[in-house]
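Question thread 4412

I'm putting together a teaching handout and wanted feedback from people who do this every day. The idea is simple: show students a protein as raw sequence, then show them the structure tokens that encode its fold, then repeat with a second protein so they can compare. Below is the first pair exactly as I plan to print it.
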Amino acid sequence: MVLNVVTGAAVRLSDSGLGCPDWPTCSRSRLTPPLSLHPIIEFGNRMVVTVLVVMCAVTVVASFFRTPGRRDLRWLSGGLILGVLGEAVLGAFVVYSKLNAYVVMSHFMLGMALVAVAVVLTLRANHAPGRGRPVVTRTGLVLSRLLVAMTVVILAAGSATTGAGPHAGGVGAKRIPIGLEDMTRIHAEIVLATGLLLLILLWVLWKANAPARVQDAGRVLLAVMVMQGMVGYTQFFTHLPAVLVGIHVFGAAMVWSTVLWLHHGLSDHRADIDIDINVDGSGTGTGTGTTPAQAGRDTPTGVGAGVGGVTDVVEPV
């Protein structure tokens, strides 16, 4: 999914947006691109989408064959393949609109939404279903949710900044009618506000003595955001070289993924196991994760434990 976003950015940054003026073929007269830079870059991005469709289809099939079965994973994997197909159709509108900046923005935001679904699917596949037991204070949860929302605003503002900038993707493409410096300033101010919010969240986590893994994830996010900010300011003061803008797009995907990873880690989740309880109270575990005895020991405070600490661990936390 990240490669999809980055190669899509490469199309715009190399002015290859109309390298293949038709869709799904490269042109009316040929399916594949000619041996020229712009058509190859544009068609390469389409091939990434094709591979994504295949991978998502395999993921959907795997979710149905998975033991124990998980409805949430089936919905997420199904949403991925529908989203990728929608991304391909929206890509056709990008071509036919002659790279209209608003359509390109929508294309980018859908790509980042798919990154989010892929991250959530990956994280949820590693534990049992359910929301989990929060390991931080309510204030920490609220601040984290606000951080996720602010990151979405950052992505939209960053996309609008590119839409107002010189990298239109092709000659004559419609731009967003706002000054580049003004849009850059708006984007930077939102980023600074989000950075301040993250610092407040880190202070709240430290003050509440949150688990070390949670605080470490927050520090990782802070480091990623600082590096992303350095790239952003450098690209602006060096007049937006295409390579740095591409790195900035990759960084945006990394910030977004790390924010979701941090937010997900604010709750403890049970290992995904399938337990059959025998008449005498003993249990046998199948699937991935811990053994039933380990699961019983890991049962959060407040959740009852039956014979041998097994009976209630199958209940959702």
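The second pair follows. I'd like the answer to focus on this one:
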Amino acid sequence: MARLGVNEMAKLKNNEVPRVLPTEYASYRDEVIKALSDRLDEAQRCRSYPLVLYDPMAGTAPLLPEVERCGYAAQFNDLNSLHSYVNAAKTYKSYLTFRDIGPDKLLSIVCRMASGLEHCPRTATEQWIEGSVLKRLALAWKRTEDESKPVASLARAILLLAVRDFSSFVRTKNPTWLKPGGLRSNISAKKAFRSAIKKLDNFYQDAYPNHGPVKGGCITLTDYDASRCGPEHEVDVVVTSPPFCNRVDWDRLYAPEHFFLNAVGVWHTRTEFLGTTTVHEYRDFESDFSFVAERSSYLRLFLKDVRERQIRNERQSDYYVKYFTLYFAGLFRVFDMAARVLCKGNAGIYFVVQENVHRGLIIEIGQALAESLSSQGFTSERLDTWERHHLGLQNISKRHRLVTPKARECIWHAFQ
């Protein structure tokens, strides 16, 4: 894989990597991509067919461009349907369609789909999106069905990338927590769609033209619960990165987009993210606590420490004990599934983790996963570690709100 140039490296150092979703960040940075690409290239040399890769928690699929450039086959899965739609517009085929149509014509197509949106008056609402605006956006989504599949894929991604500009919400002290209601922004529909198209354009320029020839991979995008089922076929290698752990409510983080997807009938209402409501309604806490404690001696001590700190702070609730138990129980089950779908002679499991801090305690996600995978016959080793400013957000704890937190980013390899 071609290395980034001086200008691109400067962008990375200044946290100005091309963003698509409002909260998207590069979880796989330049060093991680390079380390993974070298390992994947080595695995490919041992095979006469394209390497088959699986990411059960793909999120924004940072490895997708690398897979496309190298010609691998890959399935990117994420519980969040929003990611599936946006990732579909990040493929090489979507880039070629975007290039052939051009930004200006694409803008006119989306504006035509969303005709009448400009004339919706701004009114106060208690919803994420006011009724008249939601109706127009839903109609635009419906009209994408009249377009060819490549154009429809681009149009849906653009609508989702622009939804937040048409939403009514209030920001709180926690940057990841939004509240519904109020007035939407005064931005015009045309400007909102142009901004979304520009985000895609920036992504494409960074992902494809600047890196030379692209072989084109076989990409499959899914959005099922990977802790309960896996891909239909065996894979050569699993490469994934667990979601951010500690005080991020994914239902709130992407709430406007989820509200819209639910309105157009494609959001999985049966799906639950690791959010406040889910933790409070946790029904399997006792059994899951025993499950993770038996799998990881580190977690057994960590959860004990979390509980003791809550007692010292005179907190009656076991909220954080439940939060971390729910997080790791789901994570262990996803990795158990990933281990089962690996074919004979596989290249193992690569996982990238960001080990952030909870009230002074380092959350050793990698260590917990390594101990859990050992029960499945895997040996894990940490390949490298970097220090990162996670998500570019300030620490949201009451005592350290003005401090930008640093997190260790580690890449691990589990093999049999």
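Top answer:
Good format. For the second protein you could add a caption like this: Residues 1-16, 391-404 have pLDDT under 50 and may be disordered. The chain has 16 helices and eleven strands.
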